[in-house]
Design brief:
Layout lengths: L4 H17 L7 H16 L8 E3 H14 L18 H11 L8 H6 L3 H20 L7 E2 L2 E2 L4 E4 L16 E4 L1 H29 L6 H9 L3 H5 L2 H7 L14 E5 L3 H4 L7 E5 H7 L6 H13 L1 H11 L5 H13 L7 E5 L2 E4 L2 H8 L5
Antiparallel strand pairs: 1-5, 2-3, 4-5, 6-7, 8-9
Bound molecules: zinc ion (ZN).
């Protein structure tokens, strides 16, 4: 009997879980690289097509971005990602401290404003990090028990006549296996928490204190509420002081993650909308109904410049292709059909993915 798409995707996802379970565990690179690979793939589908190649350099950059956010101190300690000193996280944290950078700030905006020695130091740090990721784990991720099984991608070096193997230069490209690309897109929302769990237990195991798990999760994957609340007033003002969902003014406002944070871990400016505390609490971790999705598309377009400026002023992370790619993943997966979406407090409607698709196809990157 021929394998269905769902069966194939789950089989490939199972191989990814094997990658998590096996192999060397002295560094957190493997987990972060897998997250980065999925992030870059999801962002590359924001225009509605599944890519066949990804730049190794972009994945390396994404690894640096993920670590940039994970340098948030726990008490007066850093979370330990490595059993060795001098690892990437420690270098990034030291750089942030030396140059008055903030862990929650947008890496590209913050480091783009550096000049002189600071800019040079940052370029060097980033180049080292990218070549580190390109050398290992990117080519070695698919070596399981000593055997290489390139079930996700092959590494291609431009100018060479064959597959590159483990040379580790940032010019390399990943040629994705077509089935694997679809499988990762179908299952990344399932895989993400599993990879996060693996990273979390890795970090907890090495932490000098024993923090609460929820605390570490927030540190690893999210901004804190205090940082988020700095955006409540400006976002509210951008929406004419009205709630994004019910359109009413007045009352207590919060920042809501339009695409639920528990699925996407996306704190980027494009995923944030102003909402009443009651609307926010009622929506909780559900998908917003297609009518809200449609309004969100309009918000992204009409407020594009304002959101860009707000992110720059507050040095807030922004990654529109990533956020739009996440929206496509959440709304268009076959499994989303008929799931209840949130309209208003105590009001839900079943998702029609075809309707979501026609809205999403109009949302530009
Ligand atoms: Zn409201």
């Amino acid at each position: 009997m021929e394998e269905s798409r769902a069966e194939r995707s789950l089989r490939i996802a199972h191989r990814v879980v094997e990658v998590l379970d096996r192999g060397g565990k002295t560094q957190s690179y493997k987990y972060v690289t897998l997250l980065a690979l999925m992030d870059v793939l999801v962002a590359a589908t924001a225009d509605g097509t599944v890519p066949t190649t990804l730049d190794a350099r972009r994945i390396g950059e994404r690894v640096v971005e993920i670590y940039w956010r994970q340098t948030r101190p726990l008490g007066d300690q850093l979370l330990r990602h490595s059993s060795q000193n001098g690892a990437l996280l420690d270098r990034i944290a030291a750089f942030q401290q030396d140059h008055n950078q903030k862990w929650y700030a947008d890496m590209a905006t913050s480091t783009g404003a550096l000049d002189g020695d600071a800019a040079r130091q940052w370029r060097q740090l980033k180049a080292d990090a990218i070549s580190r990721v390109c050398r290992d784990p990117l080519p070695r991720l698919q070596v399981i028990g000593g055997d290489s099984d390139p079930f996700l991608y092959r590494v291609w070096e431009p100018g060479q006549t064959g597959w590159a193997g483990v040379t580790g230069t940032a010019r390399q490209q990943l040629h994705l296996d077509a089935d694997a690309a679809v499988a990762l897109l179908d299952t990344h929302l399932l895989l993400r928490p599993l990879i996060e769990r693996a990273l979390l237990s890795f970090v907890l195991h090495r932490s000098p204190q024993t923090p609460k798990e929820g605390t570490v999760e927030r540190i690893l994957f999210g901004v804190d509420r205090r940082a988020l609340s700095r955006l409540t007033q400006p976002l509210k003002a951008l929406n004419g002081n009205a709630c994004f969902y019910c359109q009413a003014k007045g009352g207590h406002f919060q920042v809501d993650h339009f695409l639920p944070w528990s699925y996407t871990r996306d704190d980027g400016i494009h995923n944030l909308v102003p909402a009443h505390a009651q609307c926010n609490a009622s929506k909780s971790n559900r998908l917003a109904a297609v009518e809200h999705l449609n309004r969100w598309g309009g918000w992204l377009d009409h407020r594009a410049d304002d959101l860009h400026e707000l992110a720059t002023n507050k040095r807030w992370p922004r990654d529109r292709p990533h956020t739009v790619g996440m929206a496509r993943s959440l709304y268009l997966t076959p499994a989303a059909e008929d799931t209840p979406t949130w309209v208003a407090p105590l009001q839900f409607s079943p998702l029609v993915t075809a309707a979501a698709r026609s809205v999403l196809d109009d949302i530009t990157m």
